[in-house]
Amino acid sequence: LKPYFYRQVVAKGRDLILQKGAVGIAEAERQFEKALSYYPTDSYAFLQYADAYRYKGLYAEAFAKLFAELSLPPGQPTVQVAGREVRSAAEVFSVLKRVPVVRYGTSERVLRINNTELSMSKKGAYVITHLDNKRDEAQVLLALGAFHGNPSRRFAREPYKNNLLAADYYRRVLMANPATPMFKKEEMLDRAVMGLGDLFYHEKEYDRALDYYKKILDKNPLSVVAHTGIMKALLKLAQLNRDPRMVIQHHTLIRNNKLENKLPMYLKARLAAFYIDLPAGDALRVRYNIPPKSLLTGEELKSRADELLNSIFSSSEKDIFGNTIEGTRFAEGYYQRARFFAKDKNQPRMALKQFEYAFHYDPRHFMALNDRAEVLMSLGDFMGAAELLRMAKSLSTPEKLAELGENEADETLAEAPVGVIAFNLGKAMYLDTIRDLADSATWFRLKEVQKYRSQSDQGLAALLAQLDRIEQEFREAQEKGLPKEYETELLYFSGWSKYVRNDHRGALSDWEKIDAEKAAALPNLSLAQSHCYYRLAIEESNPAQRTKYLNTALGLLFFSHDRFTAKLKTIPHIDASNPTHARLISNLAMIENNIGAVYELLDDEERSLQHYWKSVENSKRIGKENEIANLNIRLSFKRKALGEGENYPVIMDYIPPRMSEEL
Question: What is the DSSP letter of 505?
Fold first, then answer.
């Protein structure tokens, strides 16, 4: 019964640390002393406590359990190590490049580290095994390698962070023949090689990491550990090279060897994400020359995501503390299944529930909140989306992000583009704000819109104040970093917001940053830009510059005219009750009127009137009166006699607040 009671006591103290963090140290240490009364020199208790302390960010306490609790000698504020002055015992280990030579000094309360004397309050696992037991243990060396090579952000600021020292601990396992648990020597050696590979992996040197992972595979072609390392490195290389073929090829090899179900759950989740993000159908063939179906089985590559997610759900594994993690409670599995429903299956309601499960099982999972908000926006619930996104922002602060990275499953969150959360919050606020400005009729009554209210303003003033808050979210998104696929939307929305507040130069600046290929797919964008150049021309006092603005506006209008006219020719019969037809003709009426306005300012009266009349005729085709074009016709002959502000042609300056590729 003694081993059983020993492990029970260790587990109790370890769980106190995991549950209470620094608050639970005193009580946990009492349990630790009790555990030592059973087996004073057994490394198990030390390693379990070290892992718990490390997981909670208590790195000094973790190091004390792994190595020893050390301090500078009394009365010495600094010591010299490798020609460098250090001010703490922890800093000693930041300058080491190899595992130090360790021995006792004048007493067992003094430890000599490469001839540098430090005071020792308590022994840790390394001192006990290396000095007292006279035999290094592989598990202790591996734990020290993992500790000094910890990839989490918060650990990067610690003096204990030292990849060179970590690598040398791993090499000790391979070269010094340390003691290993019975029948586990090969496993210990593989873990050391994996540790070396992981050091390169976390430094983003994926090719060098692959070299180490392949060394294990060369020795054992069915090694799950090796395939795991290779797979995660290939996934990173596929992201960098934008070429998925090596991942698909190696995953096929894993499936053929019947190893897929043995992969760790975090890797199955990453693989599922990879297949979810693959282009569908023939797009896969065109972009990567990959057949969307297996030539041997006829299986759709995209269906592998579903199989991987089902495999997670039906599996379980042990964490570093020996606790069983059930696939039915694995948050990342639910998160990727939600993405699968939203993206591949077009089942938003199912996706919402899976995102909810992901956040339930991991309350840190801010990306589950973000993606759930995206689904809510697609369903028109902008206020609900904004509420979730504010929660996501509170969970993705620099302080919260720094806590991530203590285990492999954190990678999705640790590497998440948090700028997306600010963008989505701005977008949700924007879409909620402009929901009543989706047509030109409301646009003309913009100053009378009373739905916009704040404590001090209503109508247009409140709208502009809300747009300022939205702009702030967009700026934050850009500062934090935003994936390229979100940039077009952000620039369009931001430009629209500036346009509403008459910042025409700012609007043009945003819209002109949109990628040329994507801009070409947005028919309303050239119209929006023409409106801005027209307004700039009116404000311009220099005649030459004014003419330049007008000519630019005219070019954009004719470009739009050609696109809409080409679309119109594909419609054999105009049906005024058809919304698509009505929108197309309305846009042509707008373009013709605005061309007429530009020509009028260029003093080309004949062309001006021709286009005004065409605008009127287009409106009649869908049974509408064109008040603006008719007004311009009536005033064109006496415009110069009118007062300031009335002596310019009126343009139809409606810009849809939403992006659309429809003509």
Answer: H
Q: Is the pLDDT of residue 450 over 60?
A: no
Contact 120, 46 (CB under 8 A): no
Q: Is the pLDDT of residue 486 over 60?
A: yes
**Mean pLDDT value across residues 69-92:** 91
Average pLDDT of the segment spanning 43-50: 96
In single-letter form, the type of residue at position 659 comes to M
HEC profile of 516-575: HHHHHCCHHHHHHHHHHHHHHHHHCCCHHHHHHHHHHHHHHHHHHHHHHHHHHCCCCCCC
Whole-number Å distance between alpha carbons of 229 and 266: 12
pLDDT in tens, 231-247: 999 999 999 998 999 99
- The residues that bridge with 500 in the sheet, in sequence order, are none
SS3 string of 251-293? HHHHHHCCCHHHCCHHHHHHHHHHHHHCCCCHHHHHHHCCCCE
Average pLDDT of the segment spanning 302-312: 94
pLDDT of residue 115: 87
Q: What is the pLDDT of residue 500?
A: 84
* CA–CA distances in Å: residue 237 to residues 107, 208, 210, 230, 273: 52, 12, 10, 10, 15
| Distance from C-alpha of 565 to C-alpha of 94, rounded to nearest angstrom | 70
3-state secondary structure at position 601: helix
Length of the chain: 663
How buried is 64 (Cβ within 10 angstroms: 0-12 exposed, 13-18 middle, 19+ buried)?
buried
Average pLDDT, the chain: 91
Cβ neighbors of 551 (< 8 A, separation 6 or more) are none
CA distance 247 to 315: 23
Average pLDDT estimate for 416-438: 89
Separation in Å, CA 374 to CA 342, 352, 421, 638: 10, 10, 10, 53
pLDDT in tens, 348-375: 999 999 999 999 999 999 999 999 999 9
Nearest to 426 by CA among 335, 367, 366, 491: 491
**Where does the pLDDT of residue 441 fall: very low under 50, low under 70, confident under 90, or very high at 90 and above?**
low
Query: Does the pLDDT of residue 435 top 90, yes or no?
Result: no
DSSP 3-state of 509: helix
3-state secondary structure 421-481: HHHHHHHHHHHHHCCCCCCHHHHHCHHHCCCCECCCCECHHHHHHHHHHHHHHHHHHHHHC
Dihedral sign of CA atoms 520, 521, 527, 532 in order: negative
- pTM score above 0.85: yes
From its phi and psi, is residue 183 left (phi > 0), alpha (psi between -120 and 50) or beta?
Answer: left
Q: CA separation (Å) from 165 to 54, 150, 337, 626?
A: 17, 12, 40, 78
Backbone angles phi, psi at 291, to 5 degrees: -65, 130
